[in-house]
Amino acid sequence: MNIDTFFTDHWKEIEPERIARYEEMFVWHDAQRLLVEGAEIAEGHEVVDLGTGPGFFASGLAQIVGSSGRVHGVDINATFIESARARFAGQDNMTFHHVEDHKLPFAKGEVDRVICKNVLEYVPDLAATLAEVHRVTAPGGRAHVIDSDWGFLVVEPWSTETITEFFQAASPAFREPYIGRRVAGALKNAGFARVQVKLSPFVDQSGRGLNVLRNMASYIETFDTMPKARVEALLAEVEQSLAEDKFLFVLPQFLVTAFKE
Ligand SMILES: C[S@@+](CC[C@H](N)C(=O)[O-])C[C@H]1O[C@@H](n2cnc3c(N)ncnc32)[C@H](O)[C@@H]1O
Question: Which of 11, 114, 132, 212 has its Cα between 20 and 30 A from that of 141?
Fold first, then answer.
């Protein structure tokens, strides 16, 4: 494990248990349509889902574009792409592409929309990635990013200092943990004419947020950036608050729409 490149390496090679966990986590819910409202995806549109993972989000987008449109799922993980191809083999309006780096397999101005959900915190070169997004988007088209920003995280019962300590220990898993607040400026730098930012609340009292914390704890164990006993004590504190119905996990999603002239 190379800690300096872990943020991208851990997506290229994913152990089977993690693939299975993601396949459960990333299922499409109709309520997610709200996350892409700003993109104004319409029937017949050609859409790229950059960082598609198992392809479930792409399948939701495929329902919106209908049979006259097409969704291209793109990912650096070859296993995700193979499984998405198999899973959606009968769906004529979906295509999946494996990529090695930021270069996208589309011509200049070829697509109407590029959607990118919870991916940009992991890309090695944000400017190069967004330059590609801008290149493939048609004039009049839009790029639409959905992403979090770890600085906005609330985990009750943890103090602000504890949240910072925990996420600092897990931070080699991300290239840019504060992507939410930074992506609008980066899209402007990439040449988009106008960029609009909205926030969507994500509030969990049921314990789904605990899975995110467990994921972080597994990264921390890999990096050995915090004593194991401390990590276990912190998770136990969260589990206790969940049992007492006092747990709260809040992580707003930034919805950032960029317009190309
Ligand atoms: C947190 S998952 C999100 C999956 C999906 N967008 C969703 O929200 O359901 C991040 C995805 O981005 C992919 N990814 C990471 N870095 C990438 C890159 N440089 N180019 C393309 N995909 C990338 C990962 O392989 C993974 O499938």
Answer: 11
